[in-house]
Amino acid sequence: MWDYSEKVLDHFHHPRNVGTIENPDGVGQVGALACGDALKLAFKLDEKKERIADVKFQTFGCASAIASSSALTEMIKGMTLDEASKVTNADIAKYLDGLPEQKMHCSVMGMEALEAAIANYRTGDTTVRELKDDPLVCTCFNVHESEIVEAVRINHLTTVEQVTNYTKAGGACGKCKGAIQAILDRELGKAPAPAAAAAPAAPVPFAELSPAKKVMAVEKVLEAEIRPALRLDGGDIELVDVQGARIQVRFLGHCAGCMAANLTKNGLVEKKLREALGDGALEVEAI
Description:
The protein has helices spanning about 5-15, 65-75, 80-85, 90-95, 105-120, 145-155, 160-165, 175-185, 210-230, 260-275; strands spanning about 25-30, 35-45, 50-60, 135-140, 145, 235-245, 245-255, 285. It is α+β, with helices and mostly antiparallel strands. The protein folds into 3 domains: about 5-120, Sufe protein. Chain: A (Alpha-Beta Complex); about 135-185, BFD-like [2Fe-2S]-binding domain (Arc Repressor Mutant, subunit A), CATH 1.10.10.1100; about 205-285, 2-Layer Sandwich (GMP Synthetase, Chain A, domain 3). The strands form 3 sheets. It has a 3-stranded antiparallel sheet. The longest helix is centred in the C-terminal third of the chain and has 21 residues, at about 210-230. The protein is globular and about 70 Å long. The relative contact order is 0.11.
């Protein structure tokens, strides 16, 4: 159970500025429903185009995501864009009297949505666009190098675990942890991280495995690449059965009954199992 402050609980139970704005001046959208967190932020400037007159958000996520988004919108009302652009995730967490470290990625998501909305306005493009064009580090959560660097610099991060807490990068399959460490080493002025080990030999095709080995193979992927991602937001998953190419699972915790469960099943669970087991015919059924 997360230890939330009274302000976090207040903004979660009574979120401010939820909704949409007609003809917004700036729109920023970050995250992905399949990963359990998504945020869309829009703002409208005053008649003189000097200050933020109105701001609304729509989010799909945990209590920390809702509270962080709500707090951010309250913070930036009345600010100029230059003032708003200086708001960091640390400022959001401070406004809420703190967040659990494992939930700091929610405040980072708010900061990035605001950055995207301001960039959206300043380029004259009022459509939702990709904020980051730099190298993709974490494919599980779509985290780019500049996002990690920004989180490291703003929050004085020194470990891969902290980077995961603040950005989610490395929180699923873990294959990007070496790249994250290399970024940390560079930012902290350390020697480059050692080269990654050679890739293992290709496994026996999943379809040719015995029923027992299929179960073991699926369970290994769930434990290594899927459960860590779900547990970041209080969810979990268990394997029920494997029948040929059909894999039956059951969502647990916050994932049970979640409105995004089907997106998570298709965009995370099924995708990761197909990639890891090398079988594009696999189908996942949630029961």
